[in-house]
Design goal:
This protein has 59 residues and is mainly β. The chain has a domain at 27-58. It is built from no helices and four strands. The strands form two sheets. A two-stranded antiparallel ribbon has the order 1-4. It has a two-stranded antiparallel ribbon with strand order 2-3. A hairpin with a 2-residue loop joins strand 2 and strand 3 (41-44). The protein is elongated, with a radius of gyration of 15 Å.
């Protein structure tokens, strides 16, 4: 999902395409990646300082 940052709150609902199956301990992560728009082409900010990966829950 690609959202424009404009200081306006917007609702966001993320629904996985399928339910994971298998055995083991489920981990839930949430990742945010930022892009730079140059001449209508988006380039990811790849140095890692601008990206977020958060462990949400371990069941």
């Amino acid at each position: 999902m690609n959202l424009i940052i404009n200081n306006t709150a917007a609702p966001l609902t993320l629904t996985p395409a399928t339910t994971p199956t298998g055995t083991g301990t489920p981990f839930y992560f949430f990742k945010i990646t930022f892009y730079q728009d140059v001449n209508n082409t988006q380039y990811p900010l790849k140095n890692g300082a601008f990206n977020v990966l958060q462990l949400i829950e371990v069941l």
